[in-house]
Write a structure and sequence with these properties.
Layout: H1 3-29, E1 39-45, E2 49-51, E3 54-56, E4 60-67, H2 71-101, H3 109-125, H4 130-191, H5 197-214, E5 217-220, E6 226-230, E7 233-237, E8 240-241, E9 244-247, E10 253-256, H6 268-303, E11 307-310, E12 315-318, H7 366-372, E13 379-382, E14 388-392, H8 394-434, H9 438-472
Antiparallel strand pairs: 1-4, 2-3, 5-6, 6-7, 7-8, 9-10, 11-12, 13-14
Amino acid sequence: MSLNSILNMARAGMNAQQTAIQIASQNISNAENTGYSRQRVELAASLPTLFPYGNIGTGVDIKSVTRARDALLDTSYRNNAGAQAGSEATSTALSQIQSVFGEPSDTGLSASLDAFWSSWSDLANDPTNGAAKAVVVSQGNNLARTLNQFASQLDQLDQSNRETMNADVSQVNSLSKQIANLNREIVAAQSNGQPANDLLDARDNALDQMSQLVGGQVVYHENGSVAVYSGSRMILDDVNVKTLEVQDGKPPYVAYQGGTPALEGIGGKIGAELGVSAKSIPDAMTKLDSLAKGLVQTVNAIHSTGQLFTGSPPTAIPAGNFFAVTNPVPSGTDPLMTARGIRLAITDTSQVATAGATATGPGNTDVATQLAGLRDGSVSFTDASGNSLGADSIGGFYAQLVGSVATATHQAQDDATVRGALADNAQSRRLSVSAVSTDEELISVIQHQHAYQAAARLVSVVDELSQTLIDLGR
């Protein structure tokens, strides 16, 4: 063992400790950088030199610079984060649907229905009063406009949800290209034996964002690249990317660009958005249309049996429909008998019937009394295809609709809270491995500083020994 060997070991030690201090400085600088993984210098004893009396060490080597990351914790977080994003999107959409109805309210549909029935009750008390008939017409128009407004707002929510979904799918396509490019760079770096820690962090951040949008599964390949699957369908694999697009149908679905088969089982935020436009909004609209249909059919069935009296002496003529319908009904469905299309058939107060079919004068109130009684009367409701939705009063059916939306909203909010807690817990576990602790890094800096100083002291020792040898040779 020569002095030169000791000097080489001291130099290697100083280089190793200097590198370790540099990495600790990097960690401290990025302590608040979201997605940054703590890095460590892995040191190992260099190969020893064999002497007759045994092996003598030759110093230290820098084996690698690794990052603290646990793939299982990443998977756990991404699964929970995707579920959280989906639950929050569903909760937000249902809250918006609930706000359309805005019950209880003095200006909502319940108030409009009550005012409509009350106007018929007032007319029954004074059947020849023109002002009372004008109130009936006004309240009928207000009721129809309220249903029209609700339908329009639901249509707007659906359109807004679809626009958001298209934007999210575009973001998925952008992330897919980004991950594919990072795959290429990571494979190239690692194949040359170079650490790709910063590239790996960038890819993990992109994968985190992807998981929130589509859920899915990340598959790691031996060459360092990854593949992403959602609903068992490949979105990207290594550098190969499948571009996605939204097929804007009823219901909408997501497919490969230019393809028709839907990608089933998509999770995350996009999966929730698909559910909103495929089920949540259509379900609310179906019940609202069924209410409008039941209202139109029931009111018209009574009003059309009445008589109108004109002239002096009064002459009876048959009354027509109160709400408009088409004749004949196209394909068994009447667009006017929907929340979107409901409107009045009558154009002035002279067309409002109060008297029944057997009445002999305008003072009869059979029709007005029956219509006022619809406030609590039972009505059989059906959807557009004629499937029964049960029997209830019109107000009761609407209350069921509002109640079901409120219940679904509450459940979605609870689910979002639970999913959020699970995602936060998973993130905490992940950060316990990968996050930077500035206190620990400062301790590490001090430790490596002392080691550096010790190695530097060896240089001084070698210098002193060399001087001694020189002195002995004189």
